[in-house]
Amino acid sequence: MASWLIPCSPDIYDAESAFQEYGHVVWHQQCNMAPGDIAYIYVTSPVKAIRCKCRIQDVNIPFDVGEDEGYVLDEAICSKSYRRYMDLVLVECYDSNPLLSYQMLLMNGLNGPIRSQRRVVKNLDDYLSTITTQLRKNAHFYSPYHVDGGPSSLSR
User: Fold this and answer.
1) CA 102 to CA 22: how far, in whole Å?
2) Among 55, 58, 79, 93, which residue's Cβ finds the most Cβ atoms within 10 Å?
3) What is the CATH classification number for the domain harbouring 120?
């Protein structure tokens, strides 16, 4: 199982709200990801932090105008012309936390800006696994859906 960083511009797509409402989204796929892999959604400036952890449910699927269309904030930039898509299922989201900030990611193995989807290197993967486990234990996360897609009692 691999882990991936996926950038998301808050000016183009409101991923957090789409995940909160539907529990999953169809996202364009640029890399050779596999079902069961983990995808961390990194929200770009001004947030500059990981805000969601997802499980990749399905890969290499055709695009179908999804239920999350209302969360696309800039149609001109959010193109539907990619060749491959994947289904991301929300595992959990995180409130603003300095431990998941761009600076902390750089200090723990990230090599440069997150401009496109990329595989997470081992030392950064270990850091993210440790931090997200700690945040979960200390209830510094929220999840409107269980991993199976059903509503959770931990909703925000």
Assistant:
1) 27
2) 93
3) 3.10.590.10
